[in-house]
Amino acid sequence: MHPTREPRRVLWFRRLALAGALLAFCVVVLGAWVRLTDAGLGCPDWPGCYGHVFPDSGTHHFARAVHEMIHRYVASTLGLIIASLLILALINRRDPAQPVAPAAALFVVVCLQGLLGMKTVTLLLQPLIVTAHLLGGLTTLAILRWLSLAPERRPLPRTPTELRGFAGLGVAVGALQIFLGGWTSTNYAALACPDLPTCQRSWWPGMDFKDAFVLWRGLGIDYEGGVLANPARVAIHLTHRLGAVVAGLTLLSLGVTVALRARNRRLKVIGRVLVAALLVQISLGLSTVHWGVPLTVATLHNAGAAFLVIVMVTLLRALWPGASLRQGERAAIRVVRADGSESSRG
After folding, report:
1. Which pLDDT does position 163 carry in this prediction?
2. Does 14 have pLDDT greater than 80?
3. How far apart are CA 64 and CA 42, in angstroms?
4. Which of 23, 149, 247, 290 is the residue whose CA sits 20 to 30 A from 311?
């Protein structure tokens, strides 16, 4: 039996979510560009810039102000798309195929993102706030990507369902590594270890872990340029490197396993894309250190992290059939084998 097609209204909802996901990807990359060009305080007020809707040509650090305001404009446009998605979800809420709860959760996340964006400026680049803002941006991207994908309309064979736990582990490890990457960037620790594979020509240099991971240091501190001493920055950088090894091996194993064990062609392709994206991301990370954090490569490294989020969400969506299928639809596509076990008919 062929899967039931989604209603046209839901189809347009998913198309709008896809447009939002693409824009969210741009927002994440622009946010990295703003951070890396030290433009986070290019506009010290919010939501305007030195009292203007757009920076005046005579504005102090005009180029940095422009970077910051472009980021704000694109993020605001994304906010409008997300508000529209919530409105569409509420209008179509009686349709079983229409996801409502994720759209509502997405709206809450983007509201919190706006608050974090404001606090990023008013709290003078407090690392915890900036890192939370980065994670919120990637969470927004992940939910939009999830909403853009129609769920699998038929039960999966046993092998893919057994991969769900492994995929969940991959998401958890990847999220922790993204946090470490954000913490490294916001504490200006990317150059703390300029050599590879050692760090300051030592396999285990002097480090201050106690000071490195203090999440909150109080108010009234200007964090632009960083406030940590070198041993603390070295501790952050080396932790990020060790995390990259763990995350890299985990995601590489996941991608290879999915590519080899899955019988579904879509899953096999996703597994291969995950492996390729991971290898590119590792190469970008090594290049960032080797070449001294060049702006273009460092920005691409952030884009690579966002793309990995997209791939992982795509994998999770493929591994979880739609929970909203009507019971009649489920019964119609299940047959009982002679031995009493159940399978699906395509």
Report:
1. 86
2. yes
3. 5
4. 290
